[in-house]
Design brief:
Length: 419
């Protein structure tokens, strides 16, 4: 079972993330955080935005709006919400000025007062535009330069670490030469290291995510090479070490992806991610393309790696029974929205949102008698919700249990739970 995480340090925080592709709102105003050391499950049917959320976090996509913070730094920022705020303010001001002008035309006595109000409206608009343009500039800066600023921090740490040793070895030429070589190597790695490399992703299709023209050694070592590591002996040793860690052997390093089974390929994908020593691992349906007999092996491997390496994992899946076993907390997505968020045990014990109840009712039961009597709950969002007047937001119904609902639904859910 998933362990109870007592460490409350937030490793990843997502605020109002939106990812639009033209008119398609793949992810729409999603907010959640992932605590250090936990497994956060993200579930929902195909097309609900789970994978897009993961890809947005790792900067495969430039997000439309919102902010993503990792280790306290903003690594992704979109400007869409600020641009929309300017458009809304401009529209509101135009309508207000038109109404004031119309009123002054009908009653000339109000002309002077209304002209003063018009100037005030224009001044308010200029303030809103200036504020949002400043926020847009900061968002673009953080999105573009977060990795560079992180590298500069690492460079400074390396310089401070080696400065005393270099000074002490000033009179010993051989020692100084060796230390300078190590310093130069560490400095090069620091300059090439990006903060985003501390987040690694395991992709759903193991064969499509591996380059068929590269050997396993080249695939796994590629990240180290990009980061500026040049010591071939060190790279080989790290590759062999990681291969054995994920349940493969050294001899596999010289082979190509097509020579392996699906489960072995996924292990190679895991090894490629783990060798970068990430703090956060995004596992995008890592078992859905595998045979049932292999799925448990990969889940157990991820559990072992989590314990050995202190990994934090974001586990994207649609198999709720697996997510319950593996995750500490679970977020449920529907049509780009996060509709429910709670701990694993709490979500299965007290599912509140109708869509969550529908998903849970679809889990097959191992008991044939119970399975025969299992009733599927059909979810129809149009029939279930009326958001024409009272708009929904994420609300805490129970401690740590959040549901996407409006005022009326919140009251109903609380009555159902006897609160």
């Amino acid at each position: 079972m998933a362990s109870n995480n007592t460490n409350q340090e937030v490793l990843l925080r997502i605020e109002h993330l939106s990812q639009y592709f033209k008119n398609v709102k793949a992810v729409d105003d999603v907010s959640f955080d992932i605590k250090k050391g936990e497994v956060f499950g993200l579930v929902g049917e195909s097309g609900c935005g789970k994978t897009t959320t993961g890809r947005s976090i790792i900067k495969i996509y430039n997000i439309t709006s919102g902010s993503i913070y990792f280790k306290g730094r903003r690594i992704c920022a979109g400007t869409g919400s600020y641009e929309q705020a300017i458009k809304d303010a401009q529209k509101e001001t135009r309508e207000a000025i038109a109404a004031l002008k119309k009123e002054a035309a009908a009653d000339p006595a109000k002309s002077t007062a209304n002209n003063a109000l018009i100037e005030k409206k224009k001044e308010e608009l200029r303030a809103v535009v200036a504020e949002n343009k400043e926020l847009m500039a900061q968002a673009r800066h953080d999105h573009k330069y977060s990795d560079k600023e992180y590298a500069q921090t690492l460079v400074k740490q390396v310089e401070e670490e080696y400065a005393p040793g270099l000074k002490a070895a000033a009179n010993n030429l051989s020692e100084l030469k060796a230390l300078k070589r190590k310093y130069k190597d560490a400095l090069r790695v620091a300059k090439n290291t990006k903060l985003i490399t501390k987040i690694q992703m395991i992709f759903q299709d193991p064969i499509a995510s591996l380059n068929p023209r590269m050997t396993v050694r080249e695939i796994i070592a590629e990240g180290l090479v990009i980061n500026g590591v040049r010591d071939k002996a060190y790279i080989d040793e790290k590759v062999y070490e990681i291969l054995e860690l994920v349940g493969l052997v050294r001899e596999h390093a010289g082979r190509y992806p097509h020579e392996f089974s699906g489960g072995q390929r996924q292990r190679i994908g895991i090894a490629r991610a783990v060798i970068m020593q990430p703090d956060l691992l995004i596992a995008d349906e890592p078992i859905s393309a595998l045979d049932v007999s292999i799925q448990a092996q990969i889940i157990n491997l991820l559990n072992e790696l989590r314990e050995k390496l202190g990994l934090t994992i974001m586990f994207i899946a649609h198999d709720l029974s697996v997510v319950k076993y593996f995750s500490d907390r679970i977020g449920v997505m529907y049509y780009g929205k996060l509709v429910e968020l709670a701990s694993s045990d709490e979500l299965f014990a007290h599912p509140i949102h109708p869509y969550t109840r529908s998903l849970l009712s679809a889990i097959p039961l191992p008991d044939p008698h119970a399975e025969k009597n299992r009733t599927r709950i059909i979810y129809n969002s149009i029939a279930e919700h009326d958001y024409s007047v009272n708009k929904p937001t994420m609300r805490e119904i129970l401690p740590g249990h959040f549901v996407y609902c409006n005022d009326e639904e919140e009251q109903r859910y609380r009555r159902e739970l006897g609160l």
